[in-house]
């Protein structure tokens, strides 16, 4: 029988231990969470989840692939137990789910033609130079461009960073905006395009650094708190960086940001 104390913060952790498996919602986005060419689940979030859940007494992780926009609804309708997709923590999402503290922080960057002929270094440049602008479906970068004065109706929305690179190389757009990590990884093999230096977008006139984290149902504070304890140990020991490094993360993307800060206090 569940005791009053476990019921108060949710009993999901106890149930997961009993089952020996946790279902992870992933969104097929490299390098955050995806199925590789061998059909195996990988990415920074699933690999980190494997380590943390093992320490919490849950030996197996099972992927549940879905669209990015379906992650929070899927979590709340019990299709999976936790979102492991490197999801950015923001106040709107914090009303629907609870987040662990971020396991990484991230700046933005642009994909532009080699030599950056239009001199595009931030969203203000895109607006002032009337650049043709693209970004990805459901990306935070849409709002950053709009906040800088770009007309949302003029934004070309493409499925992902590969489609963004193709649009820049083909000359359909001048610039594609994404995370510093995805842009620098995708341009590595390109002869025509490059990634700009990472920068912080402005939110309410102040430079803003994003942080990605795991999401849990609002009632499951016990599981979230236990997850955070293990995450903090991994940060302290340096093991977190060792887990994330193969996916293109650098020391600059390690963070002490908290979910509370990113949720707006």
Care to describe what's here?
The protein is of the alpha/beta class. The chain has two domains: 11-105 and 210-263, D-Maltodextrin-Binding Protein, domain 2 (3-Layer(aba) Sandwich), CATH 3.40.190; 108-207, D-Maltodextrin-Binding Protein, domain 2. The chain is built from twelve helices and 15 strands. The protein has helices spanning 4-8, 12-19, 44-55, 71-76, 91-94, 123-128, 141-147, 161-169, 180-186, 221-237, 239-244, 259-263; strands at 21-26, 34-35, 41-42, 60-65, 82-88, 98-99, 104-106, 108-113, 133-136, 156-158, 175-179, 193-195, 202-203, 206-207, 210-216. The strands form four sheets. Strands 1, 4, 5, 6, 7 and 15 form a six-stranded mixed sheet that branches. The protein has a five-stranded mixed sheet with strand order 10-9-11-8-12. The radius of gyration is 19 Å and the shape is globular. It starts with a helix and ends with a helix. It holds the Pfam family SBP_bac_3. Keywords: Signal.
């Amino acid at each position: 029988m569940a005791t009053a104390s476990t019921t108060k913060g949710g009993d999901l952790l106890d149930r997961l231990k009993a089952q020996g498996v946790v279902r992870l919602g992933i969104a097929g986005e490299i390098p955050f969470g995806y199925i590789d060419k061998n059909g195996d689940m990988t990415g920074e979030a699933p690999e980190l989840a494997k380590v943390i859940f093992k320490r919490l007494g849950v030996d197996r992780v099972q992927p549940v692939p879905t669209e990015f926009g379906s992650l929070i609804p899927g979590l709340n309708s019990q299709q999976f137990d936790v979102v492991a997709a490197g999801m950015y923590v923001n106040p709107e999402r914090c009303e629907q789910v609870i987040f662990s503290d971020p396991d990484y922080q991230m700046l933005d960057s642009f994909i532009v033609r080699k030599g950056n002929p239009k001199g595009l270094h931030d969203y203000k440049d895109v607006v002032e130079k009337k650049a043709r602008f693209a970004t990805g479906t459901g990306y935070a970068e849409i709002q950053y461009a709009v906040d800088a004065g770009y007309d949302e109706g003029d934004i070309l929305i493409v499925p992902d960073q590969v489609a963004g690179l193709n649009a820049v190389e083909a000359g359909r757009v001048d610039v594609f905006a994404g995370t510093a990590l995805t842009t620098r990884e995708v341009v590595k093999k390109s002869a025509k395009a490059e990634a700009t230096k990472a920068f912080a977008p402005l939110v309410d006139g102040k430079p803003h650094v994003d942080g990605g984290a795991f999401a849990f149902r609002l009632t499951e504070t016990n599981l979230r708190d236990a997850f955070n304890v293990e995450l903090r140990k991994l940060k302290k020991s340096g093991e977190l960086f060792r887990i994330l490094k193969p996916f293109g993360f650098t020391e600059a993307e390690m963070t002490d940001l908290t979910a509370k800060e990113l949720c707006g206090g």
